[in-house]
C-alpha cells in the first residue's frame, strides 16, 4: 500500500515576526525620505520647461514714474498649519494687505518667513495657481525656498492696469490663504510719448558679470540673490550713451542684451547685444557693447541664452 507524500513548508512565529518588523521598518524609512523631500516633489517645473510651455507675457515697456512703494510682508501660519497668510491670519488686522499703485510705479517687497514651514514669494497675474511669476518679483523658489527666519527682497514695476497677486509660490500655499491683491490704476502724469530723445552727450559705464550658484540652479549678474550687488538696477536718461562690459565668471555659456520683455530673448534692443545665444561667451571670456538709450520706459537686461533670464539673469533697465 503506497502513500503520497507532500512536503509542507512552515515557519516559526518568531521568524514571521522578524519579517514583519523588517517590512515595517522599510515602510517607515521610505515614508520618511518621501516626506522629507515633499517640497521637491511639489516644486515647479524647471524654468526652461516653463518658458518652452509658453507662459503668459507680463512685461511690456512702460514709463517709470519714479514713485516707489515699500511693502513689508511676512509669511504666517495658524497653529494647525491649515491656514496660511501674509502679516496676519484672517480676521486679524493687516491680513493680506491690498497694495494700490499706478502704471509705472515700483513696489519693493521686503519679505520674511515668520512661519515654521518653507515659503517662497512672487507676483503673478494668474487668478489661481502658482505659475506666471513675473521676473524680478521672485524671492526664493519652491525648489529653494526661504526657511524659517530667512528673508529676501524683490521688486515689481506695474506694466499695465489691472489686478495682480502676490503669493507664496510653494504649490498649495496660495490656496491655503497666502495671497494678496495688487491693484494697478492708470498712469498718473509724466507718461512717456514713446519717442526717444536726441543724444544727450552723457555717457555711462556699467559692469554686469555673469555668475552662477554651485548647483547652477540660480543665475545672476554680479552677485547671487541675497548678496550685495545682485542684478543692480540701471537708470539712465533717454538719449544717454551706455557702455556695458560683461565677463563670464561662470562655467556655462552666456550672452547679453537689453529687451522689452525678459521672456523674449530674440528681440534685442538698440544693438545692445554682447555675443549671442548661438555664439555665446565661454567661461572666462568677456565683451562690451555701447549703445544709445531709446524711448523712456522700463526695460530689462538679460542673459539671452534661452532659460537663463528665468533662472535669475535679469535686471531692470530704466530709461527716464
CATH class type of the largest domain = Mainly Beta
Question: What is the spatial order of strands in the main beta sheet?
Answer: 2-1-4-6
Annotated CATH homologous superfamily of the largest domain: Cupredoxins -  blue copper proteins
Largest sheet: 4 strands, mixed
Helix-residue proportion: 10-25%
Number of domains: 2
Count of helical regions: 3
Mean pLDDT: 85
Distance between the termini: 111 Å
Task: Give the name of the CATH architecture of the largest domain.
Answer: Sandwich
Which term fits the overall shape?
flat
Radius of gyration, in Å, reads 26 Å
Strand segment tally:
17
N to C succession of SSEs: HHHEEEEEEEEEEEEEEEEE
**Named CATH topology of the largest domain:** Immunoglobulin-like
Protein name: Blue (Type1) copper domain-containing protein
InterPro entries: BlueCu_1 (IPR000923), BlueCu_1_BS (IPR028871), Cu-binding_ET (IPR050845), Cu-oxidase-like_N (IPR011707), Cu_oxidase_CS (IPR033138), Cupredoxin (IPR008972)
Domain Plastocyanin-like: 96-187
Organism: Nitrosopumilus piranensis
Amino acid at each position: 500500500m503506497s502513500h503520497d507524500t507532500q512536503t509542507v513548508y512552515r515557519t516559526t512565529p518568531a521568524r514571521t515576526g522578524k519579517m514583519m518588523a523588517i517590512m515595517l521598518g522599510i515602510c517607515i524609512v521610505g515614508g520618511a525620505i518621501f516626506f522629507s523631500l515633499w517640497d521637491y516633489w511639489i516644486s515647479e517645473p524647471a524654468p526652461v520647461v516653463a518658458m518652452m510651455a509658453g507662459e503668459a507675457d507680463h512685461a511690456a515697456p512702460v514709463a517709470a514714474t519714479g514713485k516707489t512703494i515699500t511693502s513689508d510682508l511676512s509669511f504666517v501660519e495658524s497653529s494647525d498649519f491649515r491656514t496660511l497668510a501674509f502679516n496676519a491670519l484672517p480676521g486679524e488686522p493687516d491680513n493680506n494687505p491690498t497694495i494700490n499703485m499706478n502704471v509705472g510705479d515700483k513696489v519693493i517687497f521686503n519679505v520674511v518667513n515668520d512661519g515654521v514651514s518653507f515659503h517662497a514669494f512672487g507676483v503673478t497675474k494668474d487668478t489661481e495657481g502658482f505659475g506666471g511669476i513675473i521676473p524680478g518679483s521672485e524671492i526664493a523658489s519652491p525648489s529653494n525656498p526661504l526657511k524659517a527666519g530667512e528673508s529676501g527682497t524683490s521688486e515689481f514695476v506695474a506694466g499695465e492696469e489691472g489686478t495682480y497677486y502676490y503669493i507664496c509660490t510653494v504649490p498649495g500655499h496660495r490656496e491655503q490663504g497666502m495671497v494678496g491683491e495688487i491693484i494697478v490704476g492708470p498712469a498718473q502724469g509724466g507718461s512717456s510719448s514713446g519717442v526717444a530723445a536726441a543724444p544727450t552727450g552723457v555717457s555711462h559705464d556699467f559692469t554686469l558679470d555673469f555668475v552662477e550658484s554651485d548647483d547652477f540652479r540660480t543665475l545672476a549678474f554680479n552677485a547671487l540673490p541675497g548678496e550685495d550687488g545682485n542684478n543692480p538696477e540701471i537708470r539712465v536718461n533717454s538719449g544717454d550713451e551706455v557702455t556695458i562690459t560683461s565677463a563670464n565668471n561662470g562655467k556655462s555659456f552666456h550672452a547679453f542684451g537689453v529687451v522689452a520683455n525678459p521672456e523674449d530673448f530674440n528681440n534685442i534692443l538698440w544693438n545692445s547685444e554682447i555675443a549671442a545665444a548661438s555664439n555665446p561667451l565661454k567661461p572666462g571670456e568677456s565683451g562690451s557693447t555701447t549703445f544709445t538709450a531709446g524711448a523712456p520706459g522700463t526695460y530689462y537686461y538679460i542673459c539671452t541664452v534661452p532659460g537663463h533670464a528665468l533662472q535669475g539673469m535679469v535686471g531692470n533697465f530704466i530709461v527716464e
